[in-house]
Amino acid sequence: MAFGRGKVILLGEHGVVHGRPALAAGIARGVEAHARLGARDELEIDPWTMTVRPGDDGDLPRALAAALGLYATRSPVHVQARVDLPAGAGLGCSAALGVAVIGAVDEAFGIERAPAELAEASLAWERVFHGNPSGVDSAMAALGGVALFRRGEPLEPIAPRTPLRLVVADSGEPSSTKRMVEDVARQRARTPARVDKVFDGIAAIVQNGRLAIEAGDLRALGQLMTLDQALLASIMVSTAKLEEMCAAATEAGALGAKLTGAGGGGCMIALVDSDEAARAVIEALTPLAALCFEAEAGT
Ligand code: MEV
What we know:
By secondary structure, the protein is α+β, with helices and mostly antiparallel strands. The chain is 43% helix and 23% strand. Helix 2 crosses helix 3, helix 2 crosses helix 4 (136-143) and helix 3 runs antiparallel to helix 4.
């Protein structure tokens, strides 16, 4: 069995596409996959009750073809995947699926790949969906933990001094990472100084966030998350619903809250420091959310 983890971006989305650092964490939910030799290449995805084959129309068949193209010679494989993440919601579902599928095919053919190599290989899959991915989702799907990521560089693991407890809530608004990344790139092409200033601000928040995590200063981390959210809103990747959810979470006792992933919909995260705060934040977000759950960053 191979597993691709879901992920949250604690700080730094969008800037990370343009060479700035990001802080990300794997979560326990993800995608499991098994592969066996079969009559033809196919990928069955539960609970989506979907079977895709290379050569069919659509991103998934194209991603499968790209993944299977990594193997020079092989027999046909049947891959069965079980997805336990909302798709198109900023939790790295496509990267987790790619890592799980390639990991399962590797297992079926007795190929050993280190996690960092698996992350790199799975970018062939991820590019089909996201055009210009920074690679952070694929790295977290394969390696997990809490880490600082910078495009093209090895992942830098970070050891949190205290557990990072998050409430994750899905706004239920569908979002396309590809579209959001393209939209930000268009803003940057039109007004480079403005957008680069925002990215530099986000980069400073990320570096301070790292120190806060290492020092166990959750209050500072929460404030940095809320600041990051304001900068993300300034490049128009937030929505009224995400703003409402972040406000509801902080009013209920979260130390900070922000969207996670590409924005334009999808999920937000709220940092909590006690059972009581977690319960209150879940209670505040549940009526607003399509899905709401607690996750420990890096498990
Ligand atoms: C996606 O989870 C986060 C973005 O920064 C895109 C990327 O890093 O590829 C928006």
